[in-house]
Design goal:
This protein is mainly alpha-helical. It contains four helices and no strands. The chain has one domain.
Length: 57
C-alpha cells in the first residue's frame, strides 16, 4: 500500500494519518487511502505506457 501511496503522491498524507492514529488497522488505513486518492490511474501511469513501448522495440 505504501508503494501505491507514493504512486498517487499521497505519501505525506498517509504518513501523517499514521502518526495521528498510531493504532490504525490496515483496513482503516486502506479506507483512508481510498478516500484521499484521486479517481483514475496514478500520475506515474504514463511512465508505465512508456515502459511497455520500450519493451516492444
Amino acid at each position: 500500500m505504501l508503494g501505491a501511496a507514493e504512486q498517487y503522491e499521497v505519501e505525506e498524507e498517509m504518513t501523517e494519518y499514521i502518526k495521528v492514529h498510531p493504532d490504525v488497522t490496515i483496513d482503516e488505513l486502506d479506507d483512508y487511502f481510498e478516500e484521499i486518492v484521486p479517481p483514475g490511474l496514478p500520475p506515474c501511469a504514463s511512465e508505465w505506457e512508456d515502459d511497455e513501448d520500450e519493451e516492444k522495440t
